[in-house]
Specification:
The protein is an all-alpha fold. The protein is about 90% helix and about 0% strand.
Length: about 210
């Protein structure tokens, strides 16, 4: 290995030591060991150290084809110590500032989604619901009016026939017809009650 390559490798390992310190603080900030189970912390620690080892070896491979020297470990330690002494406080403050900015940005995005998407969609849904309830109510009222008119017309048109039928048709047949009429009237009242319950269900405020 030439002198220039050794010098580049030394600088790269010092930088990786400082980077390792920053990533360790970031990892500790987001892990929150006190709120995690031990086995989860153990697995996360294994993954963290594995990723750090891969990154350091990858940088070393790019710089000097992966040749290890004892002084490279000293360079890593030097970079980590330099980070702890010179850059740690500033980086931790910067990290907290970035986290706070990200949280505020997420809050703003949630508010915009609620204001621009959720509220208009819910307003449109409530409008369509109100229109449907209104049309259903009007339709039900029209059905009642038509039913009363038809009933009145039927009584006018067929009243003479019914009067004649009472004198001609046997009483058993008359009782059967009356029974059928009562059944139809009960069916109509039952359907009317069900429609009223449906109207109350859809008209209920949520």
């Amino acid at each position: 290995m030439s002198l220039s390559v050794q010098f580049q490798t030394l600088l790269a390992m010092i930088a990786m030591g400082s980077l390792f310190g920053a990533m360790l603080d970031t990892y500790q900030r987001f892990l929150k060991r006190g709120n995690r189970k031990r086995w989860i912390v153990f697995i996360n620690d294994l993954l963290f150290w594995f990723i750090q080892g891969v990154l350091i070896f990858y940088v070393l491979f790019l710089v000097n084809s992966g040749e290890l020297r004892f002084y490279l470990f000293l360079a890593l330690l030097l970079g980590f110590s330099a980070y702890q002494a010179l850059f740690r406080q500033g980086y931790v403050r910067l990290l907290e500032w970035i986290i706070r900015i990200v949280k505020e940005t997420i809050k703003i995005i949630k508010k915009l989604i609620h204001l621009l998407i959720y509220q208009p969609v819910m307003g449109l849904f409530l409008l369509i619901k109100s229109i449907m309830i209104y049309l259903f109510t009007v339709g039900l009222a029209l059905v009642k009016i038509v039913w009363k008119v038809l009933k009145w017309l039927v009584m006018i048109v067929f009243w003479p026939i019914l009067w004649i039928a009472k004198t001609i048709i046997p009483k058993k047949v008359q009782k059967f017809v009356v029974k059928m009429g009562n059944s139809l009237e009960g069916f109509y009242k039952n359907a009317k009650n069900k429609m009223s319950k449906v109207m109350q269900f859809f008209g209920r405020k949520r």
